[in-house]
Amino acid sequence: MARRGAGTPFLLRLSLLLLLCPGGTTGCASVAVGSPVVPLGSAVTASCTIQSKLCRGLEQGNVRITWMLDNEPMVGSQHRGPGGLEVSNLTLPQLNRTQAKLWCWVEWNGTKQRVGMAEIRAGYPPAKPFNLSCVLNLSDYGLTCQWEQGANSHLPTSVTLKCATASPRAHPSRCRRNRAQAVTGCTPQSGHSRCTVPRRLLHLYRQMEIWVSATNALGTAESEHLCIDPMDVAKLDPPALQSIQSIPFQTDCVALAWEVARSNAHMELQCELRYRVSEDPAWTLVTGIIGQAGTTQRCGFLFGTQYHFQMRCRRSSARGYWSEWSPGRNYTTHEKAPVGKLDAWWSAEPAGAAGQLEVRLRWKAPRRQEANGRVLGYITRSPRKRGRDPSTVCNTTHTQCNFSVPVETTRVYLSAYNAAGESAATEVVFLERRGQPLARLWAIPRDERSLWVRWETPPAPAAAYVLEWQRVSPEPGRCSACWQMERDGAATTALIQDGIEPFQRYNISVYPLYKDSIGAPIHTTAYSKQKAPSFAPKLHLKSISKSDAELCWDPVPVEMRNGFITSYTIFWANSTAEVSSAIVNPSLSSFIIRELKPSTLYKVHIMASTAAGDTNGTSLTLVTMVLDDIEVQFLFLTLGLIFALLILLLICFQKNGRVKRQFWPSVPDPANSSLGKWVPAELQQEPLRVPGVREPGLGTISTISTVTVLERAAGK
Fold first, then answer.
1. In 483-548, at which residue ranges do the beta strands (DSSP E only) sit?
2. Which of 44, 185, 303, 546 could lock 598 by a disulfide, CB 3.0 to 4.6 Å apart?
3. End position of a domain, from candidates 232, 260, 294
4. For the chain, which ranges sit under pLDDT 50?
5. Alpha carbon distance 607, 658 (integer Å)
6. How many domains does the chain have?
7. Judging by DSSP bridges, how do beta strands 539-544 and 184-186 pair with one another?
8. Rounded CA gap, 81 and 70, in Å?
């Protein structure tokens, strides 16, 4: 019996090995699903059938069938069919996985074994492709089309670009495919949304129907159908600019010549030309140029200016795509002498030499359309005297000049020159500064690099205005370009931009210019942008008492304020965290904290504020006094008076006997009194008795004796 019991596990293991051996389950079990591909989120049905007769070792005994979806157990129903079949059915109400494996397991005599598997995929029908566009490449005449695929279907999807010849009577916007024509096309590489139809599959100069088809196990989707002639979507090669030159008699005009690409030589083309000044990003576009002409003229160019030219072409039918812009070509037009007047501004003061005037003259460089080329320099000349040519007082390449002239000089003449000549002279008159100032002036930021300056016009009409501005800085120096002239006498606003930076204060002045004088300036200050101060002032303790503390500080330097200081705020707190504060006018540099507690430690700090933020300073620790100065002085005075009085009394007591007798009167010595020497007769006759040890003391006896004697004497 022991040998038989020991062999039973061996037989079970042997049966399982026979079941697992290759071919052991061939035809033994089968798993079937309703559909291997289902819409995502839909139900799935499956069945597992076990033919016990074909499964070695399962001919006898109970067989239990279980399910696993990937690694997740599933519960199905099991029943016995005809012919010894064991069948288990499973229904998944909702499959939310895009891909899963469904396993059928057999449990026999406590051992489980997989006997079948079905793979299930879930997803969506293919999305409709969109944004289909095609371009014909004239180098190989291949038609390259691209599109956007749409949402992911989570299923293997085949995408094909299809094309077919359209009916000759098809409308351009609505193709009618000839059913007899074969459908050709191309298949994109995996993961791409573009492919090229080779030339052999195309019919040039004929309408073709082109679309994209996407197919998976759940359906097919097609893009919108294009009906195009491949030549209408041809992208031409760009032309090449050959030469650009100025027309000799009209120097503001240029002539351009180009050559079309060889691949486009047989086509009728329309072209466009664009050009711009080299440092200007804006282009000027010229349309309607015939490509086969090869040349064109264009006028209105600035003198002495470098331009950048480009050209492109397409078919004259106005269909298809423009070519790329041709490689750029630069050309500089001919120069011409500068034109126009220069804006000039001056200041003058007596020179060191007698009878001389030191003049500081500034001017603005001419605008591009007035310079007519590159300005080489500026010449300032004095007025002509007695038939002599005017003398040159300054010749410079800068836009300012300092020079000395006689005091009686009332004007000078300023001109600019380039390689082509010299401009007409601008007369600069030294007017007296005695006119009326503006009524009001203020400035507001436009952005962090510019300021709007606005004013109220003066009572008398002005001919123009001059604006000056300077950055407030500890470093010496002046901005020579920080001024401008407004020639409109009716203007009440101007935009200043040169040298404006954020977080910096600017002093702005405006001078009204009258016909025969210059008005007194009016001033204002402004920031283009503000932020919190770079740091707050450092507090110093000026004085302190038991209830007050006076603080002082140095104002924040202007270049570190980053805006207008709107206020200072003083904060103080004691050891019990009682915090108090006070707002101080920004024009002040000291403050007295009152109602403090005596002999108490306080921490104090200051905060500087602008309209854009606050900055806290470092903390200052102080301790109030126990007594005020007056109280301390009074205490010392009182103690001094008391000490002085004591000294005075001591001196008086030592020197004055009467004073002594008043405070310490003289007491007679009883031993020297008559009573001390008088002895009554009775006492003389009585013997002197010495008191014993147990008798009362002598003092008591004396007292009694004395009293007795006195009483007797009184009786007598």
1. 483-486, 493-496, 505-513, 517-519, 522-527, 539-544
2. 546
3. 232
4. 1-26, 688-716
5. 74
6. 6
7. unpaired
8. 27
